[in-house]
Fold this sequence. Notes:
Layout: E1 4-7, H1 13-16, E2 21-23, E3 27-31, E4 39-43, E5 49-55, E6 61-67, H2 76-93, E7 98-103, E8 112-117, E9 120-125, H3 128-131, H4 134-145, E10 149-154, E11 167-170, E12 178-183, E13 186-191, H5 205-210, H6 212-215, E14 219-223, H7 229-236, E15 241-246, H8 249-261, E16 268-272, H9 275-284, E17 289-294, H10 306-321, E18 324-334, H11 341-354, E19 359-365, E20 384-390
Parallel strand pairs: 1-4, 9-10, 14-15, 14-17, 15-16, 17-18
Antiparallel strand pairs: 1-3, 2-6, 4-5, 5-6, 7-8, 8-9, 10-11, 12-13, 18-20, 19-20
Helix pairs in contact: 2-4, 9-10, 10-11
Amino acid sequence: MACKFYLHKGMGRKAENGHPWIYTDEIEGYDGEYTNGDIVEIYNFKNQFIGKGYINDQSKIALRIMTRDIDEAINEDFFRKRFKDAWSYREQIIDTSSCRFLFGEADFLPGLTIDKFEDYFVIQISSLGMDRYRDIITKILVEDYKAKGVYERSDIASRELEGLEQKKGFLTEPFDTMVQITENGVKYYVDIENGQKTGFFLDQKENRKAIHRICKDAEVLDCFTHTGSFALNAGIAGAKSVLGIDVSQHAVDFAAKNSKLNNLEDVVKFECHNAFDILPKWAKEGRKFDVVILDPPAFTKSRDTVNGAKRGYKEINLRGLKMVKPGGYFVTCSCSHFMKEDLLKSTIAEAARDANRVLRQVEFRTQSADHPILWSSDESYYLKFFVFQVV
């Protein structure tokens, strides 16, 4: 019989409204025995059932809800159903040749991320409870989704908060981890073993497509280019010239390989620079572009560092805006959940005022639809993406 957990009076309201997490300080007590990672039942202070999920009393997030059905067993059939639901959704809303197959809490499997790169799958497990289901996850991907190979990229620091070691490696027979994909007509090499995250940032897929219409015949600057994805989309769209910059020489070399793969090396070029340093230098030299793109890494991953991140976002947006020709376009974004939409808007507005530029918004976007935003789980909303005309 499952151990039962009870919440303090007034606690668990978010969980009752659909949020999958329950924190340690929300728990009043429990009835029964458990081992961390077990599936337990969760009740509010009125003894009303909220859900079933796994327990880890070593984590600040002590309970993660898997189902709201008290009679639903958490087993292989359960995972098959969740996977089928996730896949059916993506088949309807996005090109699935390469996509996020499963997005953790937003697909009702907290602690699990799966990315699909053609016929190869990369999984990332961030919680103790989900760690128990690694073999079932791999089995389903191979049997039901014809995975040619499955690789694990659970080399993330958040696992340590769960009492887990970071982990990476093959979950099937070894295969060549340098995979080639095509997205928006652009070809990429994806290093699923050593690339950032799971090897490629799929969440910008639809945003990369959105810049095509502003890049034709344009001189484009792509800052924080990483593997060159925005730069290459600008090139495919017919840009006159594209320069991608990144502080990492390894990233620049990898992006150059992707440019050559697309026969764009005469148009799309890459250089190793720190954007914070080189943009002021180029501005003083009078250098300007028709389109400037900023896709920086997350400057904050916690509430405690938001103020510092705000300064960083203002500074880089200020410097980027100064590089845009009058009437040109400015593309800027943040991939930090903690940099809330309103805060990012006000930060960009401050940068525009300091740069003496006027912004006319063309569009606002979020992460691609294969990274759905669950309204009862605010953490699933993280990517904010703006396109402006600078007038």
